[in-house]
Specification:
10% strand; 44% helix; alpha/beta; globular; disordered C terminus
Length: 216
């Protein structure tokens, strides 16, 4: 689909640890994968570094020649294990609603396998205008540019890099593996404590007629 007309607001959101707390579901899925394959996986450790693509975690536990097969197996097991175990992050629905109430569009751009990302959103009743999966860090700029996103909200330094590559304002929340100092050091334009602060920030940003918001 084409991007919005010039001047209209499109806000992109990351998924894992931005809109959803995927730690319980991913933890359970890693344990199930370990049991299925007889391979040790430290699920407690794995869920402290969510954000990058699945393969970047699996290389810690499987030899390189097995990564593609293990990725396929994990993704096949995921819907039955991880979807119902995963709640929305506090403020996620309200953040997306705030975009719509401002007359804009809310899209989700995530590194997660797109079909499973869609299952999460459907289960939680979160309906973005677009969902684009399988993009990480700077790759996210491809979707952000295509859909005309001027703001991208995420929890990881990779999300900050994606926003900056796209020329979008980077709004960061330290609700994932990266703390506020890391996000600022990576170049985030705005750091909010969590998404509950996003509607008020957006109202202020929108009121500036598109001017770059002050750092928070």
């Amino acid at each position: 689909m084409t991007s919005m007309a010039s001047g209209a607001l499109t806000v992109g959101f990351d998924l894992d640890m931005t809109l959803i707390d995927s730690r319980p579901g991913i933890h359970a899925c890693y344990l199930a994968l370990a049991e299925r394959t007889g391979t040790f996986i430290d699920a407690d450790l794995a869920v402290t570094r969510l954000g990058p693509p699945l393969a970047e975690e699996l290389v810690h536990w499987f030899p390189a020649h097995q990564i593609e097969a293990m990725s396929d197996l994990y993704r096949a097991m995921y819907p039955a294990i991880a979807i119902t175990a995963t709640p929305a992050m506090t403020g996620a629905r309200e953040a997306m609603a705030a975009v719509r109430e401002s007359g804009g569009r809310a899209i989700v751009v995530t590194a997660k396998y797109e079909p499973n990302a869609g299952l999460h959103l459907a289960h939680l009743g979160i309906e973005p205008d677009e969902l684009i999966g399988d993009l990480w860090a700077e790759q996210k700029a491809l979707a952000l540019r295509e859909h005309g996103a001027s703001v991208y909200v995420g929890d990881h330094v990779g999300d900050v890099r994606g926003a900056r590559t796209a020329g979008a304002l980077s709004v960061a929340v330290p609700t994932g593996p990266c703390d506020a100092a890391e996000l600022r050091a990576a170049g985030a334009d705005v750091v909010l404590d969590d998404l509950t602060h996003f509607p008020a920030w957006l109202a202020s940003y929108s009121g500036c007629s598109g001017a770059t918001a002050a750092r928070a």
